[in-house]
Amino acid sequence: MRSEHGRVDVLINNAGITGTFAPLERATSDDVLDVLDTNLLGVMRVTNAFVPLLELSENARIVNVSSGVGSFQDTIEFDYFDWQVVPPVYAVSKTALNLLTLKYSRALPAMRVNAADPGYTRTDLNAGAGAHDVSQGTTSTSLVTYLPNRGPRPKTRSPCSPAGPSARTAPR
């Protein structure tokens, strides 16, 4: 990457798995490890691997694709407690990702580090049952990717689903 492009301007971490659909009290440690390995540690591995190339950019951005189900507020407000709809281990992984994003935003102050919630988007993750298509789901990711360096830090919602998509950005 360095020899061909010299630097990386934008890193979007968008890998994720739901894991098992089971009540939390029936989830095994292996179930939890599988989800956290992809949804949290995968983001950390990829981000840390790309930081040296991002540091060469004048306007580096890191966007972690998260979910409203990882928000304490949204979980309570929108009643995200039905394990058949929102796998609890997935929700826990996205809560952890939100905090990881906040920690990176402080650890890498020269970079714009944010999380984006695409909302309930039709993908393989939900067997195509989402409320809107991928092009609508990318709105929040695009929004935080193209924020000006000193621009506002938005928190937006779309009518696509009750909780999203939204752009969750870390305060500075």
Give a written overview of the molecule:
It is a single chain. This protein has 172 residues and is α/β, with parallel strands linked by helices. Strands 1-2-3-5-4 form a 5-stranded mixed sheet, with helices on both faces. A hairpin with a 2-residue loop joins strand 4 and strand 5. The radius of gyration is 16 Å and the shape is globular. It starts with a helix and ends with a strand.
Shape: globular
The helix tally amounts to: 6
Number of domains: 1
CATH third-tier fold name: Rossmann fold
What would you give as the CATH superfamily?
Answer: NAD(P)-binding Rossmann-like Domain
User: What's the oligomerization state?
Assistant: single chain
Strand order of the largest sheet: 1-2-3-5-4
> What kind of sheet is the major sheet?
5 strands, mixed
| Top-tier CATH class | Alpha Beta
Overall average residue pLDDT: 80
CATH architecture: 3-Layer(aba) Sandwich
| Proportion of strand residues | 15-25%
Helix and strand content put the structural class at: alpha/beta
The portion of residues assigned to helices is: 25-40%
Keywords: NADP, Oxidoreductase
Protein name: SDR family NAD(P)-dependent oxidoreductase
Family: Belongs to the short-chain dehydrogenases/reductases (SDR) family.
Organism: Nocardioides panacis
